[in-house]
Amino acid sequence: MDKFTIEANGYSRSEVNQFVDDVIANTESMIKRVKDQQKEINNLKQALLESRKKEDTLKGAMYKAEEASTNIRKQAMDEAHMIIEDARKNASRIVNESLLRAEKIELKADTLERNARIFKKKLRLVIEQQLAAVDEIEIIDINDEI
Description:
Layout: E1 6-7, E2 10-11, H1 13-145
Antiparallel strand pairs: 1-2
């Protein structure tokens, strides 16, 4: 604490007044600083509340995004399974149709081969008959000359 000069009627009035003025100035300064800090605290509390609201909103949005992502992934998997199943069915159908066509082609090939053998036999028979007729003509010519 400051020491005041003692005068006839007590302490020096000007020193005391100066001290009181300093105390008042310091007190006002502290009160102003406390009010400013209180304002800052209130502003920070408000900012914190707003941040928490934003955080909650973001959490909700993230949850919904994850949920949507899960649903999309499930739908994609279901669709993929359906496509694969359809592809398997189509593949089986195509293979079966191909096997049937192959059997028909093989049957036609067998029929053509059989018909070719029959044609060869008949052609050979006709040629042999023609050769026999030619041989008879030669024999007849020889007998007629004698």
